[in-house]
Amino acid sequence: MTDAKLPINAEDVRRAAMAIEGAIPHTPMHHSRTLSAITGADVWLKFEIFQFTAAYKERGALNKLLSLPKDTNGVIAASAGNHAQGVSFHAGRLGIPATIVMPEGTPFNKVKRTEELGARVVLSGKTFEEATQAAYDLAEKEGLTFVHPFDDPLVMAGQGTVGLEMLDECPELDTLIVPIGGGGLISGIATIAKAIKPGIKVVGVQTEAFPSMKAVVDGTDLKGSSVTVAEGIAVKKPGEKTREVVKALVDDILIVPESRIEAAILLMMEVEKVVVEGAGAIGLAALMHYKEYFHGRKVGIVLTGGNIDSRLLASAIMRGMARDGRLTRLRIEMMDQPGNLARVTEVVARLGANVIEVKHQREFGAVSLKMTEMELVVETKDRAHADRLVEALEAVGFSVSAAKTV
């Protein structure tokens, strides 16, 4: 059973489930045969990307909004992402005026999307922390209710309904992998999961760029790079209430490198045919990075959101292909004489590779005056195929080097 002294308990989560019933769809929970085979765990996926705003954040936002008096003057939140959309959508649906404060420089598409959902958007501050302070100031000035993205018991309980649905549909799960930013989602999930199934293992995951909850729980001074593809969990300071729950109920917090998150975004696209944002892919990233840790366990993973910038997604795909050896950049040195370019392309064609890009230069290469340098980006089946192409080019006399990937 959960500790009564904690900010929320299992009954809070169950009440939240009843409150939001009908307004928040029960998202699908599917077994992944392919990911299970790849990882050695029995993998189940919770598709929160299929919420209207493509993220679980609607749950906590709605649970909070439903608690407000009918004569409320309006709500305000600080967010440039999923929390903004969750608050905006349900506030608009309930007829509650909503204001969202976003940092200056927030991408136009995020501002436009939030405005389309009915909220007033105020751009203030250069950082999220400055935007949050501006939201508090505006709340006091205009008599608005601040809706915190994670450090609020009603928000935490609302997010916990994700875990309730997971165990209702798949009670045999023995491990849950949950992303951690500020801690609202994992607090709610851990609370209900431990109440239903005390022996279940709840594992949080953070990116190496923002290991803030891990640092707080372990009492260490972990330094992150503060640059991440998992923007949804880019939180420098976790919640005061959420950290209480995490310390009491979460079994472990794992840290994964950014490269694993990028790879997980691509893997989810190729295996499950769905688009997830960085924070939504981090659970799979942890499963891939710590295979032995999860081997043989029945694992539930929350795909928390699918709101990823198109350019970021394109870069993740291309970098992922390069990392897997399916996209390779070759630098080829050759004598500057007729026929050599044709010889290179003949070898590429014979090996069944596909030329994506060609750059041929004489002026800027660090080679002899009688030599020329060619950069070739090729698509291959895998790294072994790329290695065979390099060997074939070297076998006919070319000097070849392949660019390294992270």
From TrEMBL:
It catalyses: L-serine = pyruvate + NH4(+). Belongs to the serine/threonine dehydratase family. GO terms for molecular function: L-serine ammonia-lyase activity; pyridoxal phosphate binding; threonine deaminase activity. The keyword Lyase applies. Pfam families: ACT, PALP. Residues 329-406 form the ACT domain. PROSITE patterns: ACT. It is an enzyme of class 4 (lyase). Its EC number is 4.3.1.19. GO terms for biological process: isoleucine biosynthetic process; L-serine catabolic process; L-threonine catabolic process. The keyword DNA repair does not apply. Its cofactor is pyridoxal 5'-phosphate. This is Threonine ammonia-lyase. CDD domains: ACT_ThrD-II-like, Thr-dehyd. The lineage of its organism: Bacteria, Pseudomonadati, Pseudomonadota, Alphaproteobacteria, Kordiimonadales. Keywords: Lyase, Pyridoxal phosphate.
